[in-house]
């Protein structure tokens, strides 16, 4: 049997048990909780693929959340910041599948801690006229390398979006039910544990999903502040729509991603 190689893009807001920025930023207790939930999933994967390999990109904030020495199995960890490919750093065509772990809804959809890449600067983003979330952008990047998205773990809002906006073929597991941006009803710990182990066993044998690639992409970003949009217009190939909205064109998912990362990094340097 072929040894499977899996890439996991980890984000924090979508795991079970967390509802606030205080819990997901520099919080040792919840770093333990996040690592534990990842290990449940890894346990299932290695039970069915004992010679498999997993690479995790710790992609929340500056990438210092997952406790490296507690990860089980043949699991490598990408951490730290900055990274040009941020949430998908290290992904290439050698992987059999990609997993989004702890993902969340885009801003405006009442998911837990909903945002799109930068809650402080970006309000929303569209690609070819469609409102996108981090899952869509990263799935598009993975599709460029022909790596299918096979499993998504997050709150019920992002899980429902994945099913309706991408494909019913993608395995999903809802960690909690969003009540408001900072409130949720998490599933029982033992239920989450058993479900993550089971999905870890089975997900890699599913068909998964590849986005249809286009020859060109029109990307629009609405910023929280007019000040951010004002400064972003200094970047090359950025077009002003109005005082809070900009547009840029791209010919590949890689170009979309790198332009977005440049925008996010510059926006963070401006602050409030």
Please tell me about this protein's structure.
The chain has 272 residues and is α/β, with parallel strands linked by helices. It folds into 2 domains: 185 residues, Dipeptide transport protein (Rossmann fold); 54 residues, Dipeptide transport protein (Gyrase A, domain 2). It contains 7 helices and 13 strands. Strands 3-2-1-4-7-8 form a 6-stranded parallel sheet, sandwiched between helices. Strands 6-5-11-13-12 form a 5-stranded antiparallel sheet. Helix 3 packs across helix 7 and helix 6 crosses helix 7.
Short description:
The chain has about 270 residues and is α/β, with parallel strands linked by helices. The protein is built from seven helices and 13 strands.
Considering DSSP H and I runs of 4 or more, what fraction of the residues is helical? 25-40%
Number of strands: 13
**Structural class label:** alpha/beta
The number of domains is: 2
Gross morphology: globular
Number of helices: 7
Biggest beta-sheet profile: 6 strands, parallel
CATH topology assignment of the largest domain: Rossmann fold
Spell out the CATH superfamily of the largest domain.
Dipeptide transport protein
Unreliable stretches, pLDDT < 50, 5 or more residues? Answer: none
Estimate the mean pLDDT confidence.
95
Proportion in β-strands: 15-25%
Strand order of the largest sheet: 3-2-1-4-7-8
Alpha carbon gap, first and last residue: 54 Å
Order of helices and strands: EHHEEEEEHEHEEEHEHEEH
CATH architecture of the largest domain: 3-Layer(aba) Sandwich
- Just give the CATH class of the largest domain: Alpha Beta
Work out the radius of gyration.
18 Å
